[in-house]
Specification:
- This protein is an alpha/beta fold and about 500 residues long.
- It folds into three domains: about 210 residues, Alpha-Beta Complex (DHBP synthase); about 110 residues, 3-Layer(aba) Sandwich (Rossmann fold); about 140 residues, 3-Layer(aba) Sandwich (Rossmann fold), CATH 3.40.50.2300.
- Strands 1, 2, 3, 4, 5, 6, 7, 8, 9, 10, 11 and 12 form a twelve-stranded mixed beta sheet that branches. A five-stranded parallel beta sheet has the order 15-14-16-13-17, with helices on both faces.
- The longest helix is centred in the last third of the chain and has 26 residues.
- The protein is elongated.
- Keywords: ATP-binding, Cytoplasm, Nucleotide-binding, Nucleotidyltransferase, Transferase, tRNA processing.
- Its main location: cytoplasm.
- Its EC number is 2.7.7.87.
- It holds the Pfam family Sua5_yciO_yrdC.
Length: about 500
């Protein structure tokens, strides 16, 4: 089958495209189309055979209900019975929009559409292209997400074609969707109404309109063995091809844990993806890092989630690590989708961080212009079992300046560089339990301990390396003196690396 692709602008809808798509649906065919949430795979909701085609195209289990989309509120009464009184108020506030409500079904809705259930899930999308198509198709269009079952939902027509090209009759390309996560599902057959799938419309928003609502406790739980009452709630969904794990803890712990996990994977030659945010992006050094949006506006995260997961598929990564997000507002919907995509695989950030004695190593010298920067760069080149933030700082730095030119010349001759180095003043913000401070000599260590009486993990390089070889001070001397200093530092830093690796292996 050749899949027809037709473009239309929601602000200037091509009536001929809508007419053609509507005719396909009336004849029992399948048409993917944009909504404000994700792209849907449309079929005539009242044709049993059309529902079978939908399940076949998606590879979707036949007990997973389909959502029936309507364009006019009056049509709800044709497909649902015993409609609760609160429905009018909910529809007035949230329809058209990203809300699906579950009701007892009428006889005209086939069991093929409802997954064998006596209930029907109904939504009225706000996207004008979707509304026009629904009317052109006769008023009732079943439309699960237009993707292979279990894959990340499509937010562009290109995503639809990746999964369903050649399997469906037509795709209406209306550009990128607005929200990016599926609709909130509210079960109206129970009292009080229950949220079965979180989305852009939250419990607080419902309660302002109809009073208390309940929330299904399994939303962020493990896979259920019960028949799903709501679409998409039983099976693993939204999943990329790679293994996805959610790293949970406070944000600092999550960053540190993901850094270590990505570093460990890179040492094994594995390709790792990282889901980061505007705020955390600069902290990651290893892995393929993608910016999902800003924590200040989690709607941006929702909009980008499925696109990011699909991009990782294109990059062919082995494992994806994601930060976690707030469990309030739309953050709850984001976490629900991530949980499903990850198959409920979570990693405790605290447990990963706890395994590492030091997270950061700072070499401290007097002016931070030669020996300290050289030592730091040498350690960065070592094959370390664990990942560290490696810095150098000075005890007296009056103003930022580049590394000493002779030190840079020596490092270049060894295939390294200090070109990016700028001297920095050490301060008490660097005194943390997981920071190892290595002073260039005893004098520097004494000054640190005198000025910072609460300092911990402070050693000279010689002391930590268990080697008494003195580190010569080349300042004011010829280039050869810097070369001699480099040779001593290289040996000492190698022993520092050996000791850190021993710690990582639990040997010391």
């Amino acid at each position: 089958m050749e899949t027809i692709v037709k473009k239309t602008d929601k602000n200037q809808i091509d009536k001929e495209v809508i007419r053609e798509a509507g005719d396909i649906l009336k004849k029992g065919g399948l048409v993917a189309f944009p909504t404000e949430t994700v792209y849907g795979l449309g079929a005539d909701a009242l044709q049993e055979e059309a529902a079978k085609k939908t399940y076949e195209a998606k590879g979707r289990p036949s007990d997973n209900p389909l959502i029936v989309h309507i364009a006019d509120y009056e049509d709800l009464k044709k497909i649902a019975v015993n409609i609760p009184a609160e429905t009018d108020a909910l529809a007035a506030h949230f329809w058209p929009g990203p809300l699906t409500m579950i009701f007892e079904k009428s006889d005209i809705v086939p069991y093929g559409t409802t997954g064998g259930l006596d209930t029907v899930a109904v939504r009225m999308p706000s996207d004008p292209v979707a509304a026009e198509l629904i009317r052109a198709a006769g008023g009732f269009v079943s439309a699960p997400s237009a993707n292979t079952s279990g894959r990340p939902s499509p937010t562009t027509a290109e995503h639809v074609l990746e999964d369903l090209g050649g399997k469906i009759d037509m795709v209406i390309d209306g550009g990128s969707v607005e929200i990016g996560l599926e609709s909130t599902i509210l079960d109206m057959t129970v009292e009080p109404p229950m949220i079965l799938r979180p989305g852009a419309i939250t419990a607080d928003m419902f309660e302002e309109v109809i009073g208390p609502v309940s929330v299904d406790e399994t939303i962020l739980g493990s896979e259920s063995k019960k028949p799903p009452k709501a679409p998409g709630m039983k099976y693993r969904h939204y999943a990329p091809k790679a293994r996805l794990a959610i790293v949970e803890g406070d944000l600092r712990e999550e960053i540190l844990a993901i850094r270590q996990l990505a570093y460990a994977a890179s040492r094994e030659g594995k390709k790792v993806g990282i889901i980061a945010t505007d705020e955390t992006l600069p902290f990651y050094k290893y892995g393929l890092v993608k910016d999902i949006g800003t924590r200040e506006n989690e709607k941006t995260i929702a909009r980008n989630l499925y696109r990011i997961l699909r991009e990782f598929d294109e990059e062919d990564v082995d494992t994806i690590y994601s930060e976690s997000f707030a469990m309030q507002g739309i953050g709850k919907a984001i976490m629900n989708r991530l949980e499903k995509a990850a198959g409920h695989l979570r990693i405790s950030a605290a447990a990963v961080v706890k395994e590492q004695r030091y997270r950061r190593i700072i070499f401290v010298s007097s002016a931070d212009s030669a020996r300290g920067p050289m030592a730091a760069e040498l350690l960065r080149q070592e094959d370390l079992e664990q990942e560290y933030v490696i810095d150098s700082m000075g005890i007296v730095v009056l103003f930022p300046e580049p590394a000493n030119q002779k030190a840079e010349a020596i490092m270049k001759s060894a295939g390294m560089t200090l070109a990016q180095h700028t001297s920095r003043q050490f301060n008490d913000e660097n005194l943390q339990d997981d920071v190892l401070i290595l002073a260039i000599n005893e004098a520097a260590k004494s000054k640190l301990l005198a000025e910072y009486q609460n300092a911990v993990n402070v050693y000279t390089i010689n002391e930590f390396a268990e080697d008494e070889t003195e580190i010569p001070d080349p300042y004011g001397k010829p280039l050869t003196a810097y070369g001699e200093c480099y040779e001593v530092l290289k040996v000492l830093v190698g022993k520092v690396a050996e000791k850190l690796n021993a710690f990582a292996k639990g040997e010391k």
